[in-house]
Amino acid sequence: MYIIPAIDILDGKVVRLTEGDYNQKTVYDVSIADMIETYRSNGTEFIHIIDLNGAKGDFSNQAALFEVIKKTDMRVQYGGGIRTIKQVTDLLDAGIHRVIVGTQAITNPDFLQELSKEVGKKYDYANRIVIAIDVLDEVIKYSGWMESSPIKLMDYVDKCLQLGFFRFLCTDINKDGKLGGAAIDLYKKLLEHSPFIKLIASGGVSSMKDIEELDKYDIRSVVVGKAIYENRITIEQIKEWNLKQMTSL
Fold it and tell me: What UniProt keywords are attached to this protein's entry (predicted)?
């Protein structure tokens, strides 16, 4: 299991939210470029970047953000307001390694099928597209976690798998930003239902002990944010852990 450091951007600043609430944010006194360089210089190969403005349809961050991203040689997993197939293909063409899709995949019944066809013409869409599943008490949330979907969690996973998507980023909103431990029970349910998915855990990680607990299950990677900014997990610990991992991202 690989640790992927996270950078969340809101109004051009590095932040972390609690339970996805834009009114419960912690702003960190560090630039996006400095955070990326800190990770890169310490051996990080993969980074997770979310445009929180984009998640609400405001793309004012994007130009400046991409000026920074294109200067790094790290692989970037990117999300936040990706609503069209053109956005996905443009991001992949720009060098983004993985694109995260969420809201449109949930609200538009035909989006994923069209996405697989169009992206599949040029890219290995199954590995380059990540399906975001943001969950609150097993209810799927979207649009920056502000709306609820009537689709049942496991039914949605099955639909995605049928269309050839098997890489999922699952965030338990109850856990996010609280540093209270990861959503082990939720991840166990997902893996018991679909053992072959490539699961990326997100939310609640507070220490290397949480990482060790997640590693007991077939979770491919884990996104860690606030625990790093609050110095509960060091970049050196992440480097040491990732060097030992043989599992493919």
Answer: Isomerase
